[in-house]
Amino acid sequence: MKCPFCGHADTQVVETRIAEEGDFIRRRRQCASCEKRFTTYERPDVNFPAVVKKDGRRIEFERGKLRGSMNLALRKRPVSTEQVDKAIERIEEKLLNLGVREVPSSRIGELVMRELKKLDKVAYVRFASVYRSFEDVKDFTALIKTEV
Questions:
Q1: Residue 6 domain-assigned?
Q2: Within-domain flag for 2
Q3: Does residue 120 share a domain with residue 104?
Q4: Per-residue pLDDT tens for 63-112?
Q5: What is the per-residue pLDDT for 148?
């Protein structure tokens, strides 16, 4: 593993820990050259289904995009990073368990809405308003009456 500080190729694992659920391994490393420490995470390499956009394009699933959209909906809401991480893991697990090579982006949107509804009702309404392209207040009112 290359040192992120000096670029030296020789680093040594100082400490290894398995995450609580056993989903990944956390390693503390130390550079042999500059002696600075840094953390790496080791996760299984799995193939997520390709995401089929509304216009028919196929793109690779990106955890970062999922996190970004959830964080945008959760902005200034009392939800911890740990709760968001667990929600993302549940979404990823559901995607993997589908056992398909492609998944429509709408399916991912529905999974996100389901998780946000559990985490925070305001974030759920925020996400739903963009995801479902609300046009006016009636749309918000209808969502709140039926879903929240």
A1: no
A2: no
A3: yes
A4: 999 999 999 999 999 999 999 999 999 999 999 998 899 999 999 999 99
A5: 58
Q: What is the pLDDT of residues 22-33, one digit of tens each?
A: 778 999 999 999
Please report, for residues 27, 48, 56, 71, 101, the alpha-carbon distance to residue 97 in angstroms, rounded to integers and kept in the order given: 28, 10, 23, 24, 11
| Burial class of 107 by CB neighbour count within 10 A (0 to 12, 13 to 18, 19+) | middle
pTM above 0.85, yes or no: no
Q: Which helix (H) or strand (E) holds 90?
A: helix 81-98
DSSP 3-state of 107: helix
Cβ-count burial of 45 within 10 angstroms (0-12 exposed, 13-18 middle, 19+ buried)? exposed
66-96 burial, b at 16+ Cβ within 10 Å, e below that, comes to beebbeebbeeeebeeeebeebbeebbeebe
59 and 115, same domain (yes or no): yes
Q: Higher pLDDT residue, 3 or 130? A: 3
Specify the number of domains making up the chain.
2
What are 11's strand-pairing partners? Answer: 31
